[in-house]
Amino acid sequence: MNTILNCLVQQHDWRIVPFALLVSIFSLLIALSLFDRARNVARRSRRVYLIAVPLVAGLGVWSTHFIAMKAYDIGVPVRYAVGETAASLAIVVVAFYVAMHLALADVGRLGRLVAALTCGLGVAAMHFLGMSGLRLSGAVLSWNAPLVVTAVIGGMLLVSAIALLPWRVGAKRVIVATILAALGVCWLHFVAMSAVVVTPTPGVLLPVAAAAETTLTLWIGASVGLLSIIAAFLTGMVWWSRHSALGQLREAIEAMPDGLGFYDADDRLAIWNQRYAEVNPEIAAALKVGVTFREILDAGLRAGIYPCAVGREQAWIAERMANRRRPQGAMEQNVGDRWLRVQDRRTAEKGTVTVCSDITDLKRDAQALAEAKDAADTANRAKSQFLANMSHEIRTPLNGVIGVAQALARTDLDENQREMLDLIHSSSRTLQTLLSDILDLARVESGRLELSDQPYDLARAVEEAAQLYAAAARDKGLQFFVEVAPEARTWIYGDAVRLKQILTNLVSNAVKFTASGFVSLTVDAGPQGLRFVVQDTGIGFDAETRDRLFSRFEQADGDITRRFGGSGLGLAISRELAAMMGGGLGCESEPGGGAAFILTLPLRPAEKPAAPTPTVVTSEDSLFVENARRLRILVADDHPTNRRVVELILDQEAVDLVSVDDGAQAVEACRAAPFDLVLMDMQMPVMDGLTATREIRLHEVAMGAPRTPVVMLTANALPEHIAAGLDAGADRHLAKPFSVEALLAMVQELTTDAPQAAVQAA
């Protein structure tokens, strides 16, 4: 340690040493600052930094070394070899270049440590290579090995400590790294200089060469000058880059489609774009640097551009400022005849960025969309009402056709009359099916079709649906198969009626379009759910037809409609129903090769319900056996044909029938005498069926009379009609057209335990 101190104090000119230290610190500070900036730019923009940083650092450290050598008094005349001196500069620049590449590779702390060691080794190599270029007159230079080792290891440790600093961009890191690097360079140089041993050798004399000293001085001066030029150039480049970035940022802000204003921590306007003034034209004159946001609000109030603030200006300002201090999100604001969406965001320095978007067009579009939606809803309600009315108007005469035909079928007919009656039945069923399809489609479109979720026997439902067309298949000479796999013979949850609707549609189509061969319905159950396949050997269809087969009102071609009939609604409704059930409906076919329709549904197993206790029906319990008591039944219907249909059906039974043509007469009839059953139409003049039913229930409560079963016998068949009837007090709903069997079964069900109204009336 004494050797090092003696070297510093006695052998160095301290008028020159501080200059060497300043050159070292200045160059390393510039180099490390540029390196930090290089980490923040794109890779393609790093080229200038890859050249500048090694040059600045290398020239600075090299100049530090030789300036410090000028301050060192070795005791004998000295010359410098040009080759070794130039090589020492080159080696330190290359070392810094390699180290910068290693550091920018971002391979972690180990990579940064290797980069720091590379810098230290480069500085050490520069020092000793430069010292090897010394030529002493009358002396020989040698080294104190322990001090050399101390110099190298100490310098390497100080430089390597830079790698332990946090790897983040910042002025503090650059300053600390500069101090560590400068200390490392100074330690290595001055400790190494204290290791120099000069041995006098009188026989080794050098000629006087003042020009060599002058050349080194020029080299050092040129290096320091070049270092200053590079530093000035790079500093100017950084300033220009930042200025250019600010200019680009300003251009980007001006190009924004929204208005933007930036307010500082004191809520004073600092910067804004032209759009900010355009969306606030009434306060554009008040926009200037330093104006507060509160002053801008006051200017807007004086201009009368805030309709929502009229009469409550101070309260409105207080609310607006509170929202600004605690931004909760975008806020819509009515400004004159325009609408703005205003959004405030706080910055880390407590400033505020305000973004204003003109949403007047969006508001108008939203209003137009709302009006269009209201119009569409009105049209949809009108369509639904139209369908309901058409359903009622069609069902009413259709009920007459079917009812009279069924009543006629119960009379004695010859063969020709029976054939004509069968044609009437067939045409009526076709018309009824078409009407039901149209109503189902309307309910699916409006989302008003509801599915039941009840346990049912899957195998029984499938077999019942298929057997409806077994006779038709046999009449055409077709083989007809129904196969239900053992694992599918189970009870499941779902809507059995809608499942039957899909299957009967598929089976009826298969029978309709198959002239020879077979029609089959198979059901399988597996982990993926239920799979129903309806296959036939009919006419088939091509891929183009398959793509539109499930569209509404579509058939394979016009000839299909002429030959086989149909509306083209069945498959469309079936697919909609399958989707509502959580499944799907597809098909496979080729022309002339038959077709296979595949229905998939989820499998939801259910427990088989307990079997009901059977009841023994005796002759005394039957409604229509000979010598049974006669029932009093009231029929309320404004359509004479419908009343006549009921009369034709019930005239052959033990029934006393009373007919009225409006709800008011029905109420009076019930008040005058008790009935075993009331068959009530829903739509009637004077008083409708719902009101009449409510009046009958009120009368029963007031008089303490027993409850009379009421059946809504009506052409209003939509679910909301059924619900309305039950809410009014009806017990059942029977839609027109109805079958003889359905009417008689309902009469029997509701009058089995009815009091003897005829006896009470007597």
Strand content: 15-25%
Largest sheet at a glance?
A: 5 strands, antiparallel
Strand order of the largest sheet: 6-5-9-8-7
* Rg, Cα atoms, Å: 51 Å
Number of domains: 4
Structural class: alpha/beta
> For the residues shown, what is the average pLDDT?
80
Q: Please report the total strand number as a whole number.
A: 21
Distance between the termini: 140 Å
The shape, in one word, is elongated
Low-confidence stretches: 555-567, 615-623, 756-762
The percent of residues in helical segments reads: 40-55%
- Work out the helix count: 25
Describe the structure.
The structure is a single chain. This protein is an alpha/beta fold and 762 residues long. The protein has 4 domains: 2-241, no CATH class; 259-358, 2-Layer Sandwich (Beta-Lactamase), CATH 3.30.450.20; 450-601, Histidine kinase-like ATPase, C-terminal domain (Heat Shock Protein 90, 2-Layer Sandwich); 631-761, Rossmann fold, CATH 3.40.50. The strands form 6 sheets. It has a 5-stranded antiparallel sheet with strand order 6-5-9-8-7. The protein has a 5-stranded mixed sheet with strand order 11-13-14-16-15. 30% of the residues are buried. Mean pLDDT is 80; it is low at 555-567, 615-623 and 756-762.
Keywords:
Beta-Lactamase, disordered C terminus, Heat Shock Protein 90, alpha/beta, 21 strands, 5-stranded antiparallel sheet, 4 domains, 55% helix, 762 residues
